[in-house]
Amino acid sequence: MADAVPSSDPPAPLPAGTQVGPWRVVAWAGQGAYGAVYRAVPVHAQHSPPVALKVALRQGDARFFREAQLLSRMSHPSVPRLRDSGTWQSPEGTLHPWLTMEWVDGVPLYHWAWNPAVSSRQCFGVLAQLARALQALHEMGAVHRDFKGENVLVRHADGRAMLTDFGLGCFPGAERLTPAGVCLGTPLYRSPEAGQFELSRRHQRSAAYVHTPADDLYALGMVACRLLTGEYPEWVEPTQDAQGAWQVRRVRTPASLRGVAPNVRACIVRLLSVSPEQRGTAAECAEVLEQASRPPRAMRPQWSWLAMAAGLALVVWAGWTVAARSTEKASLAQARTAAAGSRDAGTVGLGEAATNASTAQALEPSSPAPLAEEAPPEPRTGQVRPDAKGRCPHKRQVVLNGACWLPLDPEECEAIGSQMFKGKCYVPALSWDRPSTSQPTRTP
Questions:
Q1: What values do phi and psi take at 308, rounded to 5?
Q2: What are the pLDDT digits (tens) for 301-331?
Q3: How far apart are CA 277 and CA 258, in angstroms?
Q4: Cα→Cα distances 376→234, 379, 380, Å
Q5: If DSSP codes are grouped into helix, strand and coil, which group holds residue 112?
Q6: For residue 175, with 0-12 CB atoms within 10 Å meaning exposed, 13-18 middle and 19 or more buried, which class applies?
Q7: Taking a C-beta distance cutoff of 8 angstroms, is the pair 371, 272 a contact?
Q8: Is the pLDDT of residue 350 over 60?
Q9: How does strand 51-56 pair with strand 35-42?
Q10: Phi, psi of 126 (to 5 degrees)
Q11: CB of 373 within 8 A of CB of 251?
Q12: Sorting pLDDT into bands at 50, 70 and 90, what band is 85?
């Protein structure tokens, strides 16, 4: 059956004290296109822990029955537990489905990451928890179909990420509610294949888009990139072939992704691949993120005297750049907040579908590439430059992007938070007359 189109404005929020099944409304918590969420307690146990009560805005909305079915089959520490479900009769006599879930006392994901005390390893751990939640969902043949940062809360009590709003979720045997030609989910987080379907649907109105786990994985890559850099990847301008079909040939990642640990960056680039087959699985991604969230092993002294001298320079550089990166991360996220807020569809914790926008960006055309594009590292302030003949002062140094770099073992590179480019690790070769580490200078 097709989704019903609301014929009037959504009803006013239920006042405190309203009884819905065995639950009593305490306060309104939020509202989306399909449902309103309330904090509620049991009618006969007012001092019991609260639950999240979600009530359909339209009578007989089958989406709620399907969400209750999906949640009843889920058992994962990062997915709120279903407590109850039923149908509520309004004072006007209309019947509205409802469900109650575990109440999550937490903060939205991106807001949580703004806290300067939150480390990169904590972010990796939260992303690993979300990947494991998707793994549990995909292993039962289901898909979320609206995975995004706004549908994730980080719990105050233990810092666990909680994936919410399964209203658009689908599982084997579920009744199809979406009419042909409609692609569900928030446009900003749609995969390239979903975007291509959306662009071409005017010529294929009878076609139906079938979401797969690869769509959720692409959205996970978008969330990871936004969480760690404050920026979203962008589609390079889609092209149209002679038959009128659209193709997204490349996804471009932000340059700030270079500051992320190399193994995590490689995982994100893989998730953002244009080819669904190359995104791997949620389990594979979770393993990488879990490993990155652990403290690094102590580095063993295996360098020659020359490498030790370079290492001393790196220690000085690392102390200088940590503060700069921390400040840059906070300012970057804050600067992007307004723009990102206008592009991120849906209400926090509700994740309602939006189907009329597109994330295609009008950028320069380019040749096809299977993975997200990675930009070369930018030179740092005080970094050694090659001489007139294009040579660096030491044989071990290499020229890259107009500056001299020292190649290191990838494991050592990760330990000091340096940069990977095309599978190799590079750290800046610094001159000894660089600025004081107490007052870092940011390169424009």
A1: -65, -40
A2: 444 445 555 555 554 454 444 444 444 444 4
A3: 24
A4: 17, 10, 13
A5: helix
A6: exposed
A7: yes
A8: no
A9: antiparallel
A10: -65, -45
A11: yes
A12: very high
Q: Give the amino acid at 199.
A: L
Question: CA 346, 349, 355: angle at the middle one, nearest 5?
Answer: 25
Distance between CA atoms of residues 65 and 174, nearest Å = 10
Distance between CA 63 and CA 232 in Å, rounded? 30
d(CA 264, CA 257): 10
Contact 53, 40 (CB under 8 A): yes
Please enumerate in sequence order all residues whose Cβ is within 8 A of that of 307, keeping only pairs 6 or more positions apart, or say none: 396
Q: Secondary structure of 363-411 in the HEC alphabet?
A: CCCCCCCCCCECCCCCCCCCECCCCCCCCCCCCCCEEECCEEEEEECHH
Confidence band (pLDDT; 50, 70, 90) for 399? confident
The two tokens of residue 370 are 């299977």
Q: Amino acid identity, residue 437? A: T
Using DSSP, state whether 246 is helix, strand or coil.
strand
pLDDT band at 367 (very low <50, low <70, confident <90, very high): very low
Rounded Cα–Cα distance for residues 381 and 120 (Å):
23
Q: Are 403 and 385 in contact (CB under 8 A)?
A: yes
CA-to-CA dists, residue 50 to 39, 41, 42, 418, angstroms: 6, 5, 8, 45
For the sheet with 106-108, list strands across it.
106-108, 152-155, 161-163
**Tokens standing for 295?**
């403290």
Structure tokens at 106: 């937490």
**Within 13 Å, how many C-alpha atoms sit on residue 42's CB side?**
8
User: Which residue shows structure tokens 């800046």?
Assistant: 428
Residue 121 has what DSSP assignment?
Answer: H
**Structural tokens at position 15:** 């006042």
Q: Three-state DSSP class for 177? A: coil
- Please report the DSSP string for 68-89 in residue order: HHHHHH---TTSPPEEEEEEEE
**Averaged pLDDT score across all residues of the chain:** 77
User: In this structure, what token pair is assigned to residue 276?
Assistant: 């669904």
Residue 245 burial class via C-beta count within 10 angstroms: exposed 0-12, middle 13-18, buried 19 and up:
middle
* Residue pLDDT, tens place only, 37-71: 999 999 998 789 999 999 999 998 988 999 999 99
Phi first, then psi, for residue 293 (nearest 5°) are -80, -10
Q: Where are the beta strands (DSSP E) in 47-190?
A: 51-56, 82-89, 95-102, 106-108, 152-155, 161-163
The contacts of residue 274 (CB under 8 Å, 6+ apart) are 192, 248, 249, 250, 251, 368, 369, 370, 371
